[in-house]
Design a protein that fits this description.
The protein is mainly alpha-helical. The protein contains 13 helices and two strands, in the order αααααββαααααααα.
């Protein structure tokens, strides 16, 4: 038997109300964004936290805390008040997995350049005209604005794999995670970018969301690539067109937090013998 969209939405809403709470955030780099009430600080902290959100979660949290700690209470003021050479000296010797001090500092230099030219990361994101990917005539998305932000940050430096190129095949999981944090506003996501519609967001697809999207029948892709992310997003968009990424946080607690397994999620969403398509 098949579960209809209304039944699936009921179960997703139930999970949302159970797990979309701040008590389930830690450990998650989103946790650090709550320290920045000013959106112009939050967007910088959020971009840095998302760029470093790969690897073991305890190391992610340790690294993000250390980097943001060096910047003080206002990342924006840190960028504006410090010379390039001072920033490079501050992070001399930085190393996190594949990221070196040069990658991190080139990211900072790119952010400084964007702030100087556009006033904010949000201003750069919207700088392509309307932040909608012109190549995707059949659906609005954030790819256009994300590409403009990526090009502007990486124009004069090498950030390594801290930022993925939205025009390539990558799902750009960490970039779409950053956008979810900045665009959505609820009990978990702090928001702040009021000019971008949540309806345009694309799912931040990692191994956990890939398994969930496959389980729900939203994708048959063999890899968690860009097309896979768009298919999973479209699946959720049929359930909640105004805010398709609404359920991302609650769903990805399964497989990340102890005592919340993906098999448990399957039992909550799909009755025995049922298939969602």
């Amino acid at each position: 038997m098949r579960m209809n969209a209304d039944r699936l939405k009921e179960r997703l809403e139930s999970l949302y109300h159970l797990y979309n709470k701040r008590e389930y955030v830690d450990p998650d780099p989103l946790f650090f964004l709550y320290d920045y009430p000013d959106v112009r600080d939050r967007e910088i902290a959020g971009l840095i936290a998302s760029c470093l959100a790969y690897g073991r979660v305890n190391m992610i949290m340790k690294t993000v805390k250390a980097v943001l700690g060096q910047m003080g209470p206002s990342p924006r003021r840190f960028m504006e008040d410090n010379r390039d050479i001072d920033i490079r000296n501050r992070f001399k010797g930085f190393k996190y997995r594949f990221a070196t001090e040069d990658h991190l500092c080139d990211l900072f230099m790119g952010i400084k350049s964007v702030l100087s030219e556009f006033g904010s990361l949000e201003g750069c994101f919207a700088g392509d005209g309307n932040a909608v990917d012109k190549k995707m005539a059949d659906e609005k998305s954030t790819n256009g604005g994300l590409t403009h932000l990526y090009r502007s940050i990486t124009r004069d430096g090498n950030v390594g794999h801290l930022l993925a190129d939205p025009e390539k095949a990558s799902a750009c999981k960490r970039s779409h995670l950053f956008l979810r944090w900045m665009v959505r506003k609820d009990g978990v996501d702090p928001g702040g970018w009021a000019g971008v519609s949540p309806a345009w967001l694309i799912y931040p697809v990692d191994t956990h969301m890939y398994k969930i999207g496959t389980m729900l029948g939203f994708t048959r892709r063999k890899n968690a690539d860009k097309r896979c992310a768009l298919e999973i997003t479209q699946g959720f968009r049929r359930i909640f067109p105004d805010d398709p990424v609404k359920y991302d946080f609650a769903l990805t607690r399964f497989g990340i937090r102890e005592q919340l397994e993906v098999n448990d999620l399957k039992q909550m969403l799909v009755r025995t013998g049922s298939k969602i398509t």
